[in-house]
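# step 3/5: fold
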Amino acid sequence: MSLSRLSVTGVRNLHPVTLSPSPRINILFGANGSGKTSLLEAIHLLGMARSFRSSRAAPVIAHEQVSCTVFGQVETPSGQTRALGIARERSGELQIRIDGQSVRSAAELADALPLQLINPDSFRLLEGAPKLRRQFLDWGVFHVERRFLGAWQRLQQALRQRNSWLRHGTLDGASQAAWNRELVLASDEIDMYRQAYIQALKPAFETTLASLIQLDDLKLSYYRGWDKDRPLGEVLLGSLERDRLLGHTQAGPQRADLRIRIGQHSAADILSRGQQKLVVAALRIAQGHLLNEVKRGRCIYLVDDLPSELDAQHRGALCQLLDELECQVFVTCVDPNLLREGWRKQTPVSMFHVEHGCIEESADSPGVKA
């Protein structure tokens, strides 16, 4: 997948702009606060229906504007062109269109425009809450296993019903048993998909990480969310009284975690920020390789402030890995000279200068119209 055309209106400090990016490497350079990250944010909105900088719509929308819109033309590996569009109102209202048709689910956007984000907050994947690592894991499972979304939706419905019953006690015995059974079935299916994905991810991650940094003791492990030696139905029965006291279900795939350790310690407690960034980059690039293997089309990488906390050697190694994926990359930096090298000679590289919210093409780059 690649964006052949991108139009952005009303996103933060960006002036309305239409870009024709390179299908491979796109370098956005300019001073801090110029709008480079805002363009990445706009692409993230287009593919995920949400910002990676704010959970609320209002901060994303430009001052005195009532909404923001992002449109994109996506080229598929088969040569087809798909049209994607998203509009967000200050009120929170969201409109999504794919090929001229309104859709309700952001999952359809994610499927049409797979995105990977590497930014200065990437270390949160290591040191943050398990929810962030579950999201990382489930992004990969969603894109390689078509049945995952249906199982995940069934899990969410079963959890809502069980948790409501735990808090209010409104279900009869037969209904309780039915929702417990549905919860167990969906949980076992999700766990099966996650385990299969982890088994595929580990060797891809180890190979990618070795190209960036030597951390021989770093290991990935998967905690499924309940005792590995006991079936979930048995665990739920044993924890029923505690679940009632707390008002929600304690065990299940909603408690799963991807653990990243060096020896017996969390990697986040040992590694520097630069090392953490390389580990997270290796994880996300490994996901890109898996997507390439099992799904027609490649994900788009959004890399914010790539040179940050990386020396020249590691910058070059990361650029090389991104280049070898043969996917579309949007990467930001302050000094473009730091990223001019590191790409293969035959790889198309486009340079865009961003200043005060305006984007202009540099020499030898595809056209840009504002």
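# step 4/5: annotate
The first strand starts at residue 2 and ends at 9.
# step 5/5: archive (pending)
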